[in-house]
Amino acid sequence: MRRVLRIVFFLYLGAYGIVLYFSTVPVLSGPDQLGYFLPARTIQLYNRFNVVPENQLSFMAQHLVETEKGLFYSKHPPLFPLILGLTMKVVGLKAAFYLNPLFSLLTLLGLYWLLMTWVKRETSYCGVVLLSLLPMFYTMATDQWAHPSGLFFLTYAFLFYRWGQSSVRNTRKSLAFYCGAGLFLGIASGIRYTDSLLILPCIIAFFFERPTTKLLSCGSFLCGLFIPISFVLYYHATVYGHPFLTGYSLVEEQTAFSGHNFFHNCPLYVKTLLKSGLGPLLFSTLIGLFFLFWTKPRQALYFSVWIFPLFILYSAYYWLPLNPESLMRFLIPIFIPAIIVTLMLIEYLVFIMPVLSSRLKGTIVLIFLGFQVIWGGYNSFRLQEKSRGYATALHHSLLSIQKQIPSQAVIFAQVGQLRTLSLFPGYTLYTSTLFTKKNMQRELLAVVNNANITTIQKKRIASLYKTLFQDGTKDYNDHVTDVLCQGFSSGKPVYIIAPAQQLEHIRSQYQNTLLFQQLPPPSQDPLCNATGKSLPHSGSVPVKNTNGIINNLLDSKIAMISLRDNSHCTHLRR
């Protein structure tokens, strides 16, 4: 029977892996993901973390911050971009998109081994199924966030920790496991800074160790922890000028946490945990903690310190009311102790509690597990399909763009398309919002006047706003024209990618401002002097007071602005 269960278990993992593979869309659908992938790409190509913009108007990822040296770094911790970058060096860019499904599968396997240190083998299988069908776990496994990798290292950190506790008779083996636990927990903390809170349950557990092994175990754990943490501190000192200064510090994100937010957000978090986080497991976890405080208070304290500090911290985060369902990803680390406590409660109910009959207890457990599985499966696919539709459409759009537009080109596109296009060297990227003055002004002002938090790139955005809208020497449209001139002068084709309605707006807005005239001789051409070579196009350069260049774009999805045929446009349909 045990062998049959093991075969079924690995078949389940294999089937789950196949589902993850076909559910994962190799595209960046949000700004956070690009904050991880962009530095990873620069690590792969140039062996550096920082990103260098073409000019002040170039598209820059939302989560990049500018240092005093004028370099742009991701505000996110450095270890996940480093893992991604090394992965890209070995297997390429596309394979890196499937790193999270792999991490998630390995997390399920590690959870199985971890659960066996707390409950029976047969009960451990149930725990793996429960985690795999939690909506946020499944959603994160198919997306490009850092949370699946963080959960992977956390799971194995606590697994090694438990193995170290169970190997006290073999001191050398026990110390090796403790060192591995510290190493993996340090890596998790370098992926998600807040995961460092999970050092607390480990410290508490050390107080329960036997006096003869307590100091050695703690020292080995701290040695493992020191390796990744020292790299993170060195990164901070090199990039930001101080070991304890982070990218989040530069944007003052610590001001996003407050006690006022906690009292407002805590009920909302509990409601969302029931809806798309833990579901019925939330009740079983709280009941399980109550029974542990009654029967095994040390274990109850251990799990409470694992769960509640992280919950309290993110309940105090200002962003929660804007998108509570998405922010369940912050609480993924507490899913592991919630499942362990639930399974311990189930075993207590089935094998220890003498009041009820075995048949009745088994029926209660099966009903609970069945309801949890149905709830989890339904909400997993509901959440994932919500983001998958947009990601799939974006992926097809990007494939079309890469097929039709050469690698050396100037591209104006929407931010969603620019996120993934920024991973491909050669493209010079600008947001198509530049062609709509009111929208551009509104977007920049929204950042400059944000009162909730000192926002990402605020100084850069304020400087850009001043250049575009408060510089009395140039009209706004002249700035846009200059961007086009730069592309033309470098010999790069210029493309606008936008919905047909927006392209029509661009045509009507700029038909009398983005204009042509006969080029002067190369020696008198300021663009030629700036680049040191003559323009590859014959005939004209955008200036004022002649005919417009953006024509007949109403039905186009991709429009190429070309100077080769005396201002005629070439249209490429998607």
Describe the structure.
Helix content is 62%, strand content 6%. It is α/β, with parallel strands linked by helices. The strands form 3 sheets. It has a 5-stranded mixed sheet with strand order 4-3-5-8-9. Strands 1-2 form a two-stranded antiparallel ribbon. Helix 5 packs across helix 7, helix 8 packs antiparallel against helix 9 (171-191) and helix 9 (171-191) runs parallel beside helix 11. It is elongated and about 85 Å long.
Percent in strands: 5-15%
User: Which whole number gives the mean pLDDT?
Assistant: 79
What characteristic shape results from the CA principal axes?
elongated
Characterize the largest beta sheet: strand count, sense, and whether it forms a barrel. 5 strands, mixed
Total number of helices: 23
User: How many β-strand stretches?
Assistant: 9
Quick structural summary:
Helices cover 62% and strands 6% of the residues.
Keyphrases for this structure?
single chain, 574 residues, alpha/beta, five-stranded mixed beta sheet, two-stranded antiparallel sheet, 62% helix, 6% strand, elongated, disordered C terminus
Secondary structure layout:
Blueprint: H1 2-23, H2 31-46, E1 64-66, E2 72-74, H3 79-91, H4 93-96, H5 99-116, H6 121-132, H7 135-141, H8 147-166, H9 171-191, H10 199-206, H11 211-240, H12 247-250, H13 259-277, H14 281-295, H15 297-315, H16 335-352, H17 358-404, E3 409-413, H18 415-421, E4 427-431, H19 437-448, H20 458-469, H21 476-489, E5 494-497, H22 500-510, E6 515-518, H23 526-531, E7 540-543, E8 558-561, E9 569-572
Parallel strand pairs: 3-4, 3-5
Antiparallel strand pairs: 1-2, 5-8, 6-7, 8-9
